[in-house]
């Protein structure tokens, strides 16, 4: 039998093989969607291990999502003689790589070992407090500014100097306090996960050298979406005195869709400048999609100016016509998509997991979810707001996280301030500074000798009362004898969360939020009693809490093995599905309407980015593609008229592809009714 790795190389085309085998220096694979870039990375890792004697622990591959990383690791395992070796690889996102570096080097940066990571909600509240405003849009704008500065490696002082108007000046000042506050909390935000390692490596040759010796070969997927800071990290990891830079990056300039988060295509060009002997390899054969889908994708992206010339082709044949559907409104669209999936699945004998519904913005998911539920179609959502991301759930979870680990500072900050209990910003700042000085958590700081000189009785009172409350819960929660459900109910009553909701939000919002909380606690109680079937062991509240804490760190749950994937276009990057429904393809949605006051050149740049997003969507499809748009759409309770997106025209569909005919829209319903009737017959007999 031939060796699995070599046989893998046989299944690759000549330029792919060249990219896998190239070991003379840095290598960039620049190619369109579905041309096997990600496959080159997995094969190359196997090649490094099997044919060049690399240890798995000396190889790092950076992907865009944790899910992609897990999949990649699995694939590599299958290519190795010793599949178990794969678990020694570092395959992760830039952010997880950053966490790994920070965990090891926290002390070098003056952080305590158990520093906390604040998520974007935690940071939102912080900016809100620092800016003394409740204007959500303004807070988000400042948050974005801070993030762009951090990713562009601009420190607060430089940001202040650069500020060109009042807003920028205000944002830069808040940026300065924001950095100071985070450091007093002994916490980092997501951007710091990459920025801090960069700063560390820049300033500390020894540490950098240690990491260079550990990560001897670096591979980067989706290179087009790296930002300045991430690129800097790559450079710092691969360049050293008298050392040959060893890395392979793969990317597609036509799929760059994260400019709004600071990613810059310039990094693709910069790579050639910084590494003059960079080997550039292009791939042109697409292995994913049928020809019609590729032609449409090529036609759309052909309207963008080109950085690098490339034209995709495929051997998969013409394939199904692309269907464009005009719908009356978004509800009808969702309903039709659900019905068509049912019918299509039945006709093709496909699985639910063969289908993806892709959309531009998270807000579009709700009507689709409703329609899928109505049709009893199982689904999973990626890239959207998962249940665990809702503010009210996070509030409750923060209490549970704190019961599980009292040193969890972001959870502490959230719980102690929601609902308000007389612990304000200045108290927390003093507590944070004190905790930083003593290298301890906020919780511990509240009881540490010397804190009395920083906080007066009026400030300490409510703080300590809160800590005692958590301690009491913790003591009881760790005992198996205590009924988790009862304890949870008691906790909810004690913190008076329901009345907090009703005094903070309008009645309708409060009602829906409280319902979410009840759904969550019911779900938790079910898990505690060993699941619905009662087969698992009964759990204490502490065990439940740890389970929840772990779950909230994942990118959503994949509980349903056979389910339709609902996803934003951004989160669909790198994935492929036999059948894709691209919905809401209207002017104002895709392309997104954006900021009307933006200057013209950024408007043009924005349309180009939206076009790349459309290109990403089309190229996810392997065999069939349905594109739909709505004539009307509800926006804030109002129904507004919509126009078909220019991108549909740009697909240049010919006669073989369906034209938007209204009467056709109803046929799937009839088709499904027929199918259902057929299905029911044998049952009756
Ligand atoms: P994207 O730009 O969307 O990330 P990609 O360039 O990373 O796409 P892959 O996901 O690696 O493309 O490959 C697309 C599909 O083509 C996968 O199903 C992969 O297994 C298959 N494929 C890649 N190369 C070959 C090949 N030489 N022979 C057969 N199938 C291939
Ligand atoms: Mg890929």
Quick structural overview:
This protein is an alpha/beta fold and 685 residues long.
Structural overview:
The chain is α/β, with parallel strands linked by helices and 685 residues long. It folds into four domains: 14-106 and 193-283, P-loop containing nucleotide triphosphate hydrolases (Rossmann fold, 3-Layer(aba) Sandwich), CATH 3.40.50.300; 116-185, Arc Repressor Mutant, subunit A, CATH 1.10.10; 301-385 and 560-680, 3-Layer(aba) Sandwich (Rossmann fold); 388-554, PCRA, domain 4, CATH 1.10.486.10. Helices cover 51% and strands 12% of the residues. It has 28 helices and 18 strands. The strands form five sheets. Strands 3-2-6-7-1-8 form a six-stranded parallel beta sheet, sandwiched between helices. A six-stranded parallel beta sheet has the order 11-16-15-12-14-13. A two-stranded parallel ribbon has the order 4-5. α4 links the parallel β2 (59-63) and β3. α17 (391-404) crosses α18 and α17 (391-404) packs across α21. The longest helix is centred in the last third of the chain and has 22 residues, at 507-528. It is globular and about 75 Å long. Residues 1-7, 531-535, 553-558 and 662-666 have low confidence and may be disordered. Bound molecules: adenosine-5'-triphosphate and magnesium ion (MG). Residues 11-13, 16, 31, 33-39, 252, 255, 287-288, 574, 576, 619 line the site of adenosine-5'-triphosphate (ATP). Its EC number is 5.6.2.4. Residues 291-574 form the UvrD-like helicase C-terminal domain. It catalyses: ATP + H2O = ADP + phosphate + H(+); Couples ATP hydrolysis with the unwinding of duplex DNA by translocating in the 3'-5' direction.
């Amino acid at each position: 039998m031939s060796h699995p790795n070599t046989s893998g190389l046989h299944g690759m085309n000549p330029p792919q093989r060249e990219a896998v085998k190239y070991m003379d220096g840095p290598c960039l694979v620049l190619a369109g969607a579905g041309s096997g870039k990600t496959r080159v990375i997995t094969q190359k890792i196997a090649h490094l291990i099997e044919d060049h004697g690399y240890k798995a622990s000396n190889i790092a591959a950076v992907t865009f999502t944790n899910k992609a990383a897990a999949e990649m690791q699995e694939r590599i395992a299958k290519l190795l003689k010793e599949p178990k070796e794969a678990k020694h690889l570092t395959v992760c996102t830039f952010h997880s790589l950053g966490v790994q570096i920070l965990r090891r080097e926290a002390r070098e940066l003056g952080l305590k070992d158990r520093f906390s990571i604040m998520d974007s909600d935690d940071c939102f509240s912080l900016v809100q407090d620092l800016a003394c405003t409740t204007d959500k849009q303004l807070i988000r704008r400042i948050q974005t500014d801070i993030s762009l500065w951090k990713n562009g490696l601009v420190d607060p002082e430089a940001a202040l100097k650069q500020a060109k108007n009042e807003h920028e000046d205000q944002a830069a000042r808040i940026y300065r306090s924001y950095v100071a506050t985070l450091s007093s909390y002994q916490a980092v935000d997501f951007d710091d996960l990459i920025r801090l390692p960069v700063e560390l490596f820049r300033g500390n040759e020894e540490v950098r050298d240690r990491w260079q010796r550990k990560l001897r070969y670096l591979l980067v997927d989706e290179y087009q979406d790296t930002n300045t800071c991430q690129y800097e990290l790559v450079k710092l990891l691969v360049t050293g005195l008298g050392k040959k830079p060893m890395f392979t990056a793969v990317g597609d300039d036509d799929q760059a869709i994260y400019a709004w988060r600071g990613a810059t295509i310039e990094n693709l060009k910069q790579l050639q400048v910084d590494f003059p002997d960079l080997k550039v390899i292009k791939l042109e054969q697409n292995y994913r999609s049928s020809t019609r889908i590729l032609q449409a994708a090529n036609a759309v992206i052909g309207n963008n100016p080109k950085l690098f010339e490339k034209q995709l082709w495929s051997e998969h044949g013409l394939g199904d016509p692309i269907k464009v559907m005009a719908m009356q409104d978004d509800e009808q669209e969702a309903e039709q998509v659900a019905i068509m999936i049912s019918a299509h699945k039945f006709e093709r004998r496909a699985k639910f997991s063969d289908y993806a519904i892709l959309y531009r913005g998270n807000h579009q998911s709700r009507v689709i979810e409703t329609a899928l539920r109505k049709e009893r179609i199982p689904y999973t959502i990626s890239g959207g707001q998962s249940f665990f991301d809702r503010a009210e759930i996070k509030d409750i979870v923060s209490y549970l996280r704190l019961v599980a680990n009292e040193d969890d500072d972001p959870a502490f900050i959230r719980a102690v301030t929601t609902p308000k209990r007389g612990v304000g910003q200045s108290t927390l700042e003093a507590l944070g500074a004190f905790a930083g000085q003593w290298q301890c958590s906020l919780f511990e700081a509240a009881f540490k000798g010397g804190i009395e000189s920083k906080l007066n009785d009026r400030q300490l009172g409510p703080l300590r009362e809160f800590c005692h409350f958590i301690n009491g819960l913790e003591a009881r929660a760790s005992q198996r004898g205590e009924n988790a459900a009862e304890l949870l109910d008691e906790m909810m009553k004690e913190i008076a969360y329901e009345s907090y909701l009703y005094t903070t939000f309008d009645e309708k919002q409060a009602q829906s939020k409280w319902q979410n909380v009840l759904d969550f606690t019911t779900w938790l109680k079910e898990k505690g009693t060993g699941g619905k079937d009662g087969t698992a062991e009964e759990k204490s509240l502490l065990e439940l809490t740890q389970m929840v804490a772990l779950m909230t760190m994942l990118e959503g749950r994949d509980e349903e093995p056979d389910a339709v994937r609902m996803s934003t276009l951004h989160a669909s990057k790198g994935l492929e599905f036999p059948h894709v429904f691209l919905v809401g393809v209207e002017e104002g949605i895709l392309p997104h309407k954006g900021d009307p006051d933006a200057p013209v050149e950024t408007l043009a740049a924005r349309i180009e980015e939206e076009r790349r997003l459309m290109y990403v969507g089309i190229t996810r499809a392997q065999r069939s593609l349905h594109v739909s748009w709505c004539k009307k759409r509800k926006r804030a309770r109002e129904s507004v008229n919509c126009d078909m997106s220019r991108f549909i025209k740009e697909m240049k569909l010919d006669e073989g592809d369906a034209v938007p005919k209204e009467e056709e829209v109803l046929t799937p319903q009839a088709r499904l009714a027929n199918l259902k009737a057929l299905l029911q017959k044998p049952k009756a007999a």
